[in-house]
Amino acid sequence: MKVLIIEDEQHNFNRLKKLLLGYDATMLVEGLLETIDETRDWLHRHQGAEAPDVVFADIRLADGLCFDALSELSPSSMLVFTTAYDEYALQAFRNNGIAYLLKPVDDEELRATLNRIRDLRTTNTQLQSVLAMMQQSSQPYRERFLVPYKDGYEVVSVDDISHICTEYKDTQLYLAAGRFFSISMTLEEIESQLNPRDFFRVNRQTIISIHVVIGLKTWFGGKLRVRLANYPDTEMLCSREKASALKTWLGR
After folding, report:
1. Residue 80 pairs with which residues in a beta bridge?
2. Nearest 5°: phi and psi at 38?
3. Apex 244 CA angle, 240 and 247, nearest 5
4. How many CB atoms lie within 10 A of CB 107?
5. Beta bridge partners of 2
6. Which residues are CB-neighbours of 175 under 8 A, at least 6 positions away?
7. How far is CA 47 from the centre of its chain?
8. Which helix (H) or strand (E) holds 18?
């Protein structure tokens, strides 16, 4: 966990840092920041992945109140106020503070606050995972391809595809019925548009459909040979690195 301490007195910074490391010795603690300008500049330079997970902010700094610098605070950072004065509590919570600790900071109160932060971070992580899964599940996947054929085009449903291969920069759609079509797309482009529940990239050159796989055969070097319906003579090898994922995909 990355922690920033906004504090204008060295001994207060040292004490809080010691308490934090006593709770979790793996914490990365940064500071001290003594002025509004210094705090605003630090927060402006540390955004996104570089933003602190938690900020402990003394309210009265050398040149004013810390509230004036919090416009640069990353939305992902949790904010805890530490002060020797109790008259700023309402203003602190208006600035989205999750806790208000009076100095000298009590070790038990600090630990309770850190436990709460840990629980909030866990909940936020789980929520982000759920949202990501929901977004992925709602992603519109390709249902058909329009491929050149003779003097026009033919519509190919993804349900009719057996496998897709690229050879010498030529990408071909092989149908379960035995026909094939060339298509002017890379394998990477096609892979990103197909539903991963139905299609799996077994190696750098090939994507297969789950609906035509009839079995696997162990092969040299930890590889697997994939047996496809209607293509008994096609050597479809899955790389050793992807063998475990392929078996999981087929066995779900």
Report:
1. 56, 99
2. -65, -40
3. 120
4. 13
5. 28
6. 156, 160, 161, 162, 181
7. 17
8. helix 10-23
| DSSP code for 24 | -
Q: Are 35 and 60 in contact (CB under 8 A)?
A: no
**CA-based nearest residue to 48, from 72, 22, 19, 79:** 72
Q: Is 144 left (phi over 0), alpha (psi -120 to 50) or beta?
A: beta
What radius of gyration do the chain's Cα atoms show?
Answer: 29
CA distance 243 to 60: 60
Taking 60 as the threshold, does the pLDDT of residue 7 lie above it? yes
The letter for the amino acid at 81 is F
Tokens of 52: 């602190």
| pTM of the complete model beyond 0.70 | no
Q: Is 56 within 8 Å of 12 (Cβ atoms)?
A: no
Of 148, 203, 150, nearest to 172 by C-alpha is 148
Per-residue model confidence as pLDDT tens digits over 181-227? 999 899 999 999 999 999 999 988 999 999 999 999 988 888 899 99
Q: Which helix (H) or strand (E) holds 224?
A: strand 224-228
Kindly give the pairing relationship between strand 78-83 and strand 97-102.
parallel
Neighbours of 226 (CB within 10 A): 26
- Each residue's pLDDT tens digit, 144-194: 999 988 888 999 999 999 999 998 778 999 999 889 999 989 999 999 999
Structure tokens at 159: 């349900």
